[in-house]
Structures are given as structure tokens and as C-alpha cells.
Amino acid sequence: MRSRLIAAARGDEPGDLLLTHAQVVNVFSGEIEPADVLIRDGKVASLRGGEAAVVEDLDGLILCPGFIEPHFHLESSLVTPSEFARAVIPRGTTTVVADPHEIANVLGVEGVLSMLAMTEELPLKVFLMIPSCVPATEMETSGARLEAADFPSLLAYPRVIGLAEVMNFQGVIHRDPSLLAKLAAVGSRPIDGHAPGLSGRDLEAYAAAGISSEHECTTLAEAQEKLRLGIHILLREGSAARNLAELLPLVTASTAPFTSFCSDDRNPLDLRDEGHIDLALRKAVGLGLDPITAVRIATLHPARHYRLEGLGAVAPGYRADLVALPDLCEFRAERVYSAGKKVAEGGKALFPAFALPSSLLSSLKGTFHLDPQRINLRIPAPIEDGTARVRVICLAPGQILTRELAEEVPIRGGFACAEPRCDLLKLAVIERHHGTGRVGLGFVRGFGLQRGALASSVAHDSHNLLVVGSDDREMLAAARAVAAMGGGQVVVEGEHILAALPLPLAGLMSDQPLEEVCQRVQALAKAARGLGCGLEEPMMALSFLSLPVVPQLRLTDLGLVDVEHFRQVPLFL
To answer: CA-to-CA distance for 504 and 457, rounded, in angstroms?
Structure first.
């Protein structure tokens, strides 16, 4: 293949495809150059034209490298990787570096292997990072564990390229032996960070461990401090966390090479309606960023940071992952090529959905082990009647961060109750992997529900069953509905299911097409709004309330977690 590529580059042999009258974005020189791009065996051979079996006239379209997503959880799209590819390739994304820690928390090594299998034949190039924290902490119950001893067999796969976000930053800075063994096991490969708010000497200790990227920055000052320590900053514009506008002033001529765009999590509606990396490009340029710099941040920079050889540029020897655009403002992909094959045109995928083998589907189902009869949602109080002061999780709009509040809750007959009129709801995390019947209980403010309940088996990161509601009866009805589906999301009123999204694949993903999932996600949001919820993404907001590595206060099946002090705390003050 190398010989044939050289021959095509010299004009001694024809190529497979010639794209004429292109305006190529040169990410090395910062220029836009007229070119006729010759492709052979899936790689760019020349920008000077030549003979080819197939010729396509781009008629002046701007030709960019395919966009690269450097940090994403495929499971957050709620669809299979095949359906995800059909959503993002027409938007210009041709490569994804994925962290499969959602499915790994359910199925362990087998979950990572299943993700490799599901992404093997896609026109979307998918690389995986090994989940570093399964479970994320010891203050929750996951379905499986990943240890350093599991890493060598996974690193044998060429598409496994490093260690995913190290969420247990306390374990790093306090030199936890098992975590240090994981860092050592990946050698010199990239190691992703996850340390929201970490600063000072602790941040330096974290960086000294070999952490090389960070996607959790929410303020400019935080991003500046981390970049100064050599940490590559991922400018996140996702569904749950939208930080791009706040962080964009970080990007200057000096700092740009040490930044990339990422989305982290994108729900199916946002993928369909807003886009993916193209959204970040559009927003950044709209806020004043130089378009060529924006393209570099979406292509060359992540390729270099993650050592993705031959990706991120339109140049001889580089893989012919290409996006043809009318302009560098809207970043609307007219044509998309993957390894020299046209895979999307006019915003539509040109490849079919890939059917998963029945054996693989079977291995991803039946992961929900919960007996609804054992669930007890009552919260015993220290008094018989009156009010008592408790810790309350408070949502932060547009962020996955939470605040801790101290609130009075009503006590009736010796049990603490919700107070929907004051936007004070009960929250439950029900262990669903091992059938223990264990339940963590607390209170949350910010949903606005006046009645009814929401439940989700997408519950970061251990993916137990999360339920929020105004009373125990409705919360139990929601929990039973999710258990009956083998995983999913529901909205109930009384004992009536208003909307439901089955997620039978590990309790995380649907086996249905993207459009069907989008319709069900819309129905869930509409049903929640009908019950008084004012959140734009109620299910995504719910799903992060059990994540015990993002400040301040979280709830797991083992109880409330004070993330800043990395300890469990009592509900009653």
C-alpha cells in the first residue's frame, strides 16, 4: 500500500478518487489553498491532482480534515454506536476517542470488549480509552470492577490507546496503590484527567502523576492554571455541561495548540438538532475565534495530543477523512469522506445501520437485578412530627456541579417527607446490579416537580436506579416500571406511566433507531414539564446526581457523599 501511495503521489499510477476544485484548509500553514486532492487506498496521495478511477468536482467547497471528538461517552447518546455514527458523520465527525466507563461499570471487561465489537466495522473511526475508575469510588456499588491486572489484555487491541478520565483525583494525590498501578499499567500512553476545581499543590501532584488532559474546567481561571502545568484543555460543549463560551478566552496564538473541542456527553436530541463538534466550531467562530484556529482545535490538536498518527490534516500520507463545507461560519457539511469513501452527503448518511449480532445483543441484556418488593423509600426521622434540618442537593443550571443546602423538611409520623410546593423532592438511588435491595435516600431542589416521579437507570457512574419524586407511591411506581423494562427512563403520575424510554442494552442504550429514541426523549421531557418540571433536560440532570466525583453533594446507594471532602455524610444535620 505504501508503494502504491508513493506511485500515485508521483503521478506514476492512478488514484482511486480525485476531488477537484477544492479549497483546502492547511492546518499546518494556516492557509486556504486551491487543490485537486488525489486519494489512493484511503489516504491522501497528492494535492496536485492526477489520474483517478473516480472524479468528483467540489466546485469550490472548502475541504477540511474530518472533525475529531477527543472525549466522549458513546452510551450517553442512548443509542448503539452504529446509530451514533449515522448521527455525527453527516455533521463532519469522522473520529471519536471514547471512554466506555458507563458500560464498564455495568459489565466490566466484557463491557469494554462489547464496545470494541460494536465499533469495529463502522465508517466512524473509534478509539477507546480504558476506564480508570470502575467503580468511580468505593462509596457506591457498581456492577463490575476493572483492575490494573485487566489492562494488558485490553491494551493488546490497537484501538485501545490510553487511560480514560481519572476521576478519583483524591486517590491520585494520596497515592492509592491500586490507582498508581493503573497509571503504571498504561505506560507512556495518554492519561485523561477529571479533577473539577482541583488547584494548587494538589493539582501539581495530580499533573505529576502523568495526567495530560482535562475536560472538567468550568472557569477561565481554572483552565489557565491547568494549562500552565502542561495539561491539554478540552473545551467542553455538551448537553449537560456547556463551558465553551466561558473558556474560549483561554485560546490565544500561544495556547491554541494545547486545546481541543469536546462534548463529553450528548443526548440524541441535541445530536440531531444541534450537532456535535460542528456545534463547537460554529459557536466558537460566532464568538470571534479565527476560523482556521477553530479547525485546528477540532482536528490537528486532538490528533497530536492522542497520538493518532495520520489523522487531523489534509496532506499526503494522511488518512482521507475529509469534510467539504460551503463556509467556515456554519460548518454545515455538504460531503463527508471516511478513508476516501463518501459516507454522507447533504446532511444524510450514505451507509446503512449496522445490525448487531444476536449473541452480542443477548450479552448486553438481562443486566437489571432488582426486586421491587424489597424497595423501602421511607426516611426515618429523629422526631415524630414537625420539621428537621437536612442536607439537600441543589442543581446548578447548565452545569453538572451541585451545591449543598441546609433545609427544613416536614416530618410526619416519624418519617421525613417531600415538600413539592417548596421544590423539595425526595431522591433515591436503588442498587440494581446485585439484587441487594440497598437504597440511598436524600432530598433535592431544582426539579420543580409538583407531582409525579422520574426514574432512570442511566445514573453516573455506577448506573444504579435513580428516582426523584413527590411521594413514595409514585417513586415506587417509577422504579417498578424501569425494572420491568430491564432498564430505561420513565415519567409517572400516580401509578400511570406518562412516557417511557426502554434501554435494554446494559440499562444504558436503546436497540431502536435514533429517530425513535429522539421521539421518546421528547415525550419524557414533555411529560416532566406537565408535572411542573422546569428543566430543559430533566433526565440528564437526574442522571448526574449520583456521580460522587463532581462537587459538591451527591447521592449513591450507600448514602450522601460530600465530594469536596471525599466522604460520606449523614442526611440529618
So the answer is: 10
39 neighbors 18 (Cβ within 8 angstroms): yes
Are 429 and 464 within 8 A, CB to CB?
yes
Residue 251 sits in a domain of what CATH number? 3.20.20.140
55 and 87 fall within a common domain: no
**Contact residues for 50 (Cβ-Cβ < 8 A; gap 6+):** 8, 11, 14, 15, 18, 36, 38
Residue with cell 448518511: 349
Structure pTM?
A: 0.93
C-alpha torsion sign, points 506, 507, 509, 515: positive
Task: Specify the length of the chain in residues.
Answer: 573
pLDDT of residue 184: 97
Q: Using only C-alpha atoms, what is the Rg of the chain?
A: 24
Cell 482536528 appears where?
A: 299
Nearest to 493 by CA among 454, 539, 443: 454
CB contact set of 208 (below 8 Å; sequence gap of 6+): none
Q: How many domains does the chain have?
A: 3
pLDDT at 405: 96
70, 306 contact by CB (below 8 A) = yes
CA distance 140 to 354: 35
**Residue 39 belongs to what domain range?**
2-60
The dihedral over CA atoms of 22, 28, 30, 36, expressed in degrees to the nearest 10, equals -10
Considering the domain architecture, whether residues 555 and 412 belong to the same structural domain is answered as: yes
Which of 286, 305, 327 is the endpoint of a domain?
Answer: 286
Average pLDDT of the chain is: 96
Residue entry with cell 477540511? 64
Residues 154 and 225 in one domain: yes
The pLDDT tens digits of the residues spanning 461-513 come to 899 999 999 999 999 999 999 999 999 999 999 989 999 999 999 999 999 99
**Per-residue buried b or exposed e for 113-148, using 16+ beta carbons within 10 Å of the residue's own CB:** bbbbebbeebbbbbbbbbbbbbbbbebbbbbbebeb
Cell of 372: 421491587
Q: Is 65 contained in some domain?
A: no
Measuring CA to CA, which residue among 315, 337, 320 is closest to residue 90? 337
Residues 6+ apart with CB under 8 A from 218: 196, 241, 243, 246, 399, 401
